[in-house]
Write a structure and sequence with these properties.
Aldehyde Oxidoreductase, domain 3, 5-stranded mixed β-sheet, 3-stranded antiparallel β-sheet, 16 helices, 8 strands, flat
Length: about 425
């Protein structure tokens, strides 16, 4: 029973990330509510309201048809206009900031909820429209249902106003950066909390373990921890996940090691627990946040955009994320009952820092203001505690590379004197 629950939960986690999930739920609820109202109309709800509160009921078939037709037409036009604006937002974000930001913007639940409200209201009005008998007497008109259709249309109008408000926020780079940062911070804090619980466990050397290859191509997005943990306990084995999250894995590349040799049935079972995707989300892989913020900085400092203000803001968010990453080790474990069963690799700090700074140095080494901001970032990070002393060594090496590149680009004496001051401050 627990295994079935885990499988269902895993399926739910996968499907809820799809852009059509919440709109589909809203749409089905609109259809279901329409049938419920049809049943209530057959039970005489409109007749009762005509006798007691006639002002709430539309009891003319032609009027009801006209009202619902106008509501449906207006709602469809509103929905088309709203999501034309979403396309404009996505195009502008891709052009001005980075195409890598698009999956995070598309998956915004507020926009999905608003689309769902539109769809459920449209479908409700359509099905109520079918139930109207304009040539019958007044009791055959679903008057109360028509009134609800009008109210749902009013709700959609307010949802449209809220949508205009959110879309005007979503286009701002500060909002985009904060959203990326918050998602990555939550992921890192969750990993740090898990690491505290599992740090006391040891894991054997996996050099001679059995390697198994992947059957799919795609980005290694995630794996079902509960299912894989249950598998390890049932088969009395340990597993090491070889690739880091977010890396593109080709078919035939080893993806995990097992302490014990596994049969074909067990391999098929494990492959179901490993998730691949053609898209990347920060909530699944915090390293993507570093990539996205780095690309925003590089795009802002490119000659076509030339927006150092955005670069300076992005460096602040990058500093906070690096500070959190310094508290995490390069490997993590998944355990239960005082035993580590699964070893998970992550991008090591030195590689992450180098990849980020290599891109930033290319576009920012000519700007003394941005270089100064980066040196402040290094100074702050060097003063923070780290899970490994090697992290501080990596920071010093990257600071030296930044200063070296900046000195090769800058010629103004004042700028060079500032660089000398920064070198002394960083003890380079």
């Amino acid at each position: 029973m627990k295994f079935l629950y885990i499988r269902f939960f895993t399926f739910y986690q996968n499907i809820k990330s799809k852009i059509a999930f919440y709109p589909s739920l809203f749409a089905m609820s609109g259809v279901l509510f329409a049938f419920i109202m049809m049943y209530m109309e057959n039970r005489g709800v409109s007749r009762y309201l005509i006798d007691n509160i006639p002002i709430l009921v539309v009891n003319n078939g032609d009027t009801a048809l006209t009202i619902l037709s106008a509501c449906i037409t207006g709602l469809i036009s509103m929905m088309v206009f709203s999501f034309s604006m979403v396309m404009v937002l996505l195009n502008q974000a891709s052009t001005n900031y980075s195409p890598r930001l698009l999956p995070g913007l598309i998956s915004d639940r507020k926009h999905q909820f608003i689309l769902g409200i539109y769809l459920s209201s449209i479908l409700y009005c359509i099905f109520i429209l079918f139930s109207i008998q304009p040539t019958g007497d007044k009791y055959q008109v679903p008057g109360f249902s028509v009134l609800l259709g009008i109210l749902f249309t009013v709700v959609c109008i307010y949802a449209f106003i809220y949508f205009i408000h959110t879309i005007s926020q979503s286009i701002q780079i500060t909002y985009i950066l904060e959203k990326i940062f918050n998602s990555a911070r939550n992921t890192l804090e969750r990993l740090l909390e898990s690491e505290k619980e599992n740090s006391k466990f040891s894991f054997p050397d996996s050099k001679d373990w059995h390697k198994y290859e992947t059957e799919k191509n795609g980005y290694f997005q995630n794996f079902s921890q509960e299912n894989l943990l249950e598998f390890c306990k049932q088969n009395d084995t340990l597993i090491e996940i070889i690739p880091v999250k977010g890396i593109f894995v080709l078919q035939g590349i080893p993806i995990f090691k097992s302490e014990k040799e596994l049969d074909e049935e067990s391999l098929k079972q494990i492959h179901k627990y490993i998730h691949f995707s053609r898209a990347e989300l920060v909530s699944d892989n915090y390293v993507l946040a570093f990539k996205q913020i780095t690309e925003v900085i590089a795009k802002a400092m490119s000659p076509g955009i030339n927006d150092p203000g955005t670069a300076l803001n992005a460096i602040d968010y990058l500093t906070e994320l690096f500070q959190l990453r310094m508290l995490k080790s390069d490997e993590s474990y998944i355990s239960e009952e005082n035993k580590a069963y699964i070893k998970v690799r992550t991008v090591n700090f030195e590689e992450l820092l180098y990849n980020v700074m290599a891109s930033i140095r290319t576009y920012c080494k000519h700007d003394i203001v941005v270089v100064q901001k980066l040196c402040i970032m290094f100074y702050y990070l060097q003063s923070q505690k780290a899970v490994k002393e090697d992290y501080h060594k990596c920071l010093k090496e990257e600071a030296e590379r930044l200063i070296e590149d900046a000195e090769s680009m800058l010629e103004n004496r004042k700028d060079l004197s500032i660089l000398e001051h920064l070198k002394k401050k960083l003890e380079l």
